[in-house]
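Lecture notes, structural biology module. Today: joint structure prediction for complexes of two components.
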Amino acid sequence: MNDEPLLIAEGLTKYYGRRLGCRDASLELYEGEVMAVVGESGSGKTTLLQMLSTQIEPSAGRVLLYRMRDGSVQDLWTMSEPARRFLLRTDWGYVHQDPQLGLRMGVSAGGNVGERLMAVGQRHYGDIRATAADWLSRVEIPRSRIDNTPRTYSGGMRQRLQIARNLVTAPRLIFMDEPTGGLDVSVQARLLDLLRRIVAEMRIAAIIVTHDLAVARLLSNRIMVMKDGQVIEAGLTDQVLDDPHQPYTQLLVSSILPA
Amino acid sequence: MTALTLSDVTKTFTMHLQGGLRLPVLRNVSFAAAPGECVVLTGPSGAGKSSILKLIYGNYRCDSGHILVSAGGSPVDIALAEPREILALRQRALGYVTQFLRAVPRVSALDIVAEPLILKGTPREDATARAAMMLRRFNVPERLWSLPPATFSGGEQQRINLARGLLPEHPILLLDEPTASLDANNRAVVVDIIRERKAQSAAIIAIVHDESVRDEIADVGVDVTYFATAA
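The predicted structure, tokenised, for the full assembly:
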């Protein structure tokens, strides 16, 4: 076990004009840990995720440290823009709820996956295509569909393709915003199983925003509960869900319909 | 030398949805288990036996007191430990078997049983081979191994769960009714495995209602009513 956190954030705060998006959120994430951020819509989950992944700048709380592959710790806000972009394309992944935001819809599935490989310097067409094909089969997309664009794919397939595109560079940290939102229950189950297995096998750290406590329980080791822009309870996932202390968390947990 | 020591552990639930009703469950729980020893918790249902196991596993947070686990490396106090320390401890040293299998959709019985070993670092093939041996030992028919257990009978699911929980040979084992709804043959398998683990110096905390099983495995009995609050 590596004793240095992979990502450290302190006091992240975001106001949209005068409206609070997220206040004073802090976390430390270690290698291989999966953190779920739960709460109802408008609670600030996505704002937090976007600040952590440097997609939006916080209004206050600019501590965001990341331990690079070479072991050095970098402040993500003082890093140059190209260096940060490179990090996002290689060492990180970002899975959007809407796969259209994370995919190039006019490019073939193989091209979508291969593009990230080219970002890390691979140039050999045959190798790129072989790796892309391998990843398509890992996310259970038939090889025969490699030359089709995602426009011809179903919602579940698009989401799996987005995951393949993100994981092909073997990132160490992946952000996911409601990765199973908008999918049918059976399609969700397949995607969850896939995510669970791949994240465990590759020992990827992940931060997953979801409003679904069952998804949080299945995928995460740790959990943060957000309400009105603030983190109100955090800890081990099973501990927080089995022994919730805050009134709002108790309400969330007691609102789940038994299957 | 003890593997597990609880001292003055107290647990109260506060139910905010019931107007802040406070439900005291346990008070001043203190006992210890040595390596190779099986402590059986006794007392009527509702006395807090399962709550004690959940406190040790870190599923419940204790209000006060200490839960000291020594299993190689420096001792960890579950009452104060960071989430990742608890996760690491569970992976490496702490096993917890309940009556119920929390089945993951689409994952086969064999993979469910092998998973804790793989997480512990055992190569997949080796882990799968040992998982198969365990399933055979629990008389789970081979035709079921590749299926997800969601549709299995209660007894079959429990055997999958036992196989999964007992396979990793953790130095500390928490067993919540491991023999409920098992037939005599499979009960005997559980008793045999518990004896093997004791011989390997595992410390075991168990809740067992079946008296014959209890007599076969228990070294020490701890009456939980002694710690139960007058609820």
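Point to remember: Chain B touches chain A through 20 residues (CB under 8 Å).
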